Amino acid sequence: MIKVTALPEFIIQREEEHTELTAPLSTLLRDISLSAKIVNREVNKAGLVDILGSAGTTNVQGEMVQKLDKFANERFIAAFQTGGECCGIASEEYEDFLCFEDHLGMHPKYLVTMDPLDGSSNIDVNVSVGTIFSIYSRLSESGLCTPEDFLQPGTEQVAAGYVIYGSSTMLVYTTGHGVNGFTLDPSIGEFCLSHPDIKIPKTGKIYSVNQGNYDLFEEGVKRYIDYCHESDPETNRPYSHRYIGSMVADIHRSLIKGGIFFYPATKVSPRGKLRLVYECNPMAFIVEQAGGRATDGKNRIVELKPNGLHDRVPIFIGSPDMVLKAEELVQKHKP
What fold does the segment set 7-195 form as a domain? Predict the structure, then answer.
């Protein structure tokens, strides 16, 4: 018989192998997996209940909040608040961070940044969406968390991961010792190890970008897209263009099959569109741990120091050879 390793068992094994992995961190990861199961349940039955469509409000980004956005955000917050291992969270849905009172006397040492439902504009058309999360050790020693706790560079992440709700639901995470993927087995209600020690291919045949913005991109980005279109058997070009519009889904494909995802600066969004703290940093940590590369076109994403919770940055992320080529052209044609 094939041995099946469930997520709780895997986490315990990792605790024994790596002494810096603490019991509170393991508990926090289990809280995330439980919340993901609940969100998955709602995603799967969204068309049968009143959970599709807009909630009638906008978030701090000025984006329309979907009903499932709101549900996912509340579900994860409830798990962190009652679990007692998290001192506070920063979410895409809130303008400021949210601190939890230490009512259990546990003095939690971790905090979470998250996008509770990435790609939520795809919900109504049954396209894959996801959850992105990142875990840091707090800098403040006691009391309520502080802005400095949340504005750490991505190099300080102790764990990061994402959940993709698709044809199957997967949780992929890293604690700095490689990347492992777990697929939810609905028959037993548990995430089981399905993709051990994920390694991203050095190159791939897929590039992922919102090509409708072509005329708004800088010259170097246009040159890279043109490079992707050129025929060259030696480098397996032309590449195929695939763009889902959900960062989790696009990067997950690159992680498994090889490829590049990029969301560069445009004339409309000169600082980029994706958020550094709770989107780019966790995905960069994961991809780098799998052997990939993630930059803003020049600098490592995880080395950038955020000035605010909702700072935006350009990002080029995926197979290392493809990202390096994109960087080369971006820098060569820098205005």
Answer: Fructose-1,6-Bisphosphatase; Chain A, domain 1 (3.30.540)
DSSP at 6: B
Residue 216 to residue 288: CA distance in whole angstroms: 29
When the candidates are 3.30.210.10, 3.40.190.80, 3.40.50.12780, 3.40.190.10, the CATH number that belongs to 206-332 is 3.40.190.80
Q: For residue 34, give both structure tokens.
A: 């439980």
Which pLDDT tens digit goes with each residue over 167-211?
899 999 999 999 999 999 999 999 999 999 999 999 999 999 999
pLDDT in tens, 16-46: 777 667 788 888 999 999 999 999 988 877 6
Exposure of 69 by Cβ count < 10 A (0-12 exposed, 13-18 middle, 19+ buried)?
buried
Q: What distance in Å separates the CA atoms of residue 311 and residue 280, rounded to the nearest whole number?
A: 10
Burial label, 200 (beta-carbon count in 10 A; 0-12, 13-18, 19+)? buried
